[in-house]
Design goal:
The chain has helices spanning 5-16, 73-89, 102-108; strands at 21-23, 35-45, 58-69, 94-95, 115-124, 145-153, 164-167, 172-175, 181-188, 193-199, 202-208, 219-222. By secondary structure, the protein is an alpha+beta fold. The chain has a five-stranded mixed beta sheet. A hairpin with a 4-residue loop joins strand 7 (164-167) and strand 8.
Length: 228
């Protein structure tokens, strides 16, 4: 549980040295008695694991400064080494190779002392989103595809070449040939198609309500006047 990550670290220290006083506070300049400290320095986001679950768990890395103290320095040193070996044997924890930098001790206002940085992973399992129950069978309505032939005429019924013709809803586009003709080879045969004709900096929206699969009987589009 994410609410008990500090207790998890304390329990780990006690499993190594039963009866030891454990502190989660920042190290002090003077400590009485003997014990071990696990001070949380920072929390960082860790890369998620590829579990294939949706939603994926959230991952954090907690970084603790682990220190020990005792009226006898040698006892503090022995306890620190025992904790380091225990962390190295554990698959749940990771020790940083470098010792805590001097800047950490300066920020805490205490003199440098033997210590190590312990990385503890924390995983938050997010609840799954329940899919809604499908109570009716899936109904797929298929629409036949057919060609759409067209002819673009300018003033005086002159065919317009190199006009751009688009069907925005289908992300389709083409250009007219030298006879002003164009063709979309596969468009839905049912329902209206909305076209946009572009020529000489002008646009003309066109609604095609019928089917024009025959090149001999195309959709005729009168693009005029061409001059402002």
């Amino acid at each position: 549980m994410i609410e008990a990550f500090d207790e998890r670290v304390k329990d780990w220290i006690l499993s190594v040295a039963a009866g030891t006083e454990v502190s989660l506070a920042a190290p002090k300049a003077q400590e009485s008695g003997s014990g071990a400290g696990a001070y949380l320095l920072d929390v960082t986001k860790a890369p998620p694991s590829n579990t294939g679950r949706r939603p994926a768990p959230l991952h954090l890395t907690l970084r603790y400064l682990v220190t020990t103290w005792s009226d006898k320095p040698e006892d503090a040193h022995q306890l620190l080494v025992r904790l380091m070996f225990a962390a190295m044997e554990s698959a749940d924890y990771q020790i940083e190779a470098d010792p805590p930098p001097v800047s950490v001790w300066r920020a805490l206002g205490v003199s440098p002392r033997p210590a190590f940085l312990l990385r503890v992973p924390l995983v938050y399992e997010r609840p799954s989103i329940a899919a809604k129950l499908v109570r009716e069978p899936l109904n797929i309505q298929a629409s036949p595809l057919m060609s759409l032939h067209g002819l673009v005429l300018g003033p005086g019924k002159v065919p317009l070449a190199n006009c751009r013709v688009e069907i925005p809803a289908l992300h389709l586009s083409t250009s007219t040939d030298y006879k002003g003709r164009f063709c979309f080879p596969g468009v839905p045969g049912e329902g209206a198609s909305r076209l946009v004709v572009k020529a000489k900096g002008r646009e003309l929206p066109v609604v095609c309500d019928g089917n024009y699969p025959d090149s001999a009987a195309p959709l005729v589009i009168n693009f005029s006047p061409m001059e402002a």
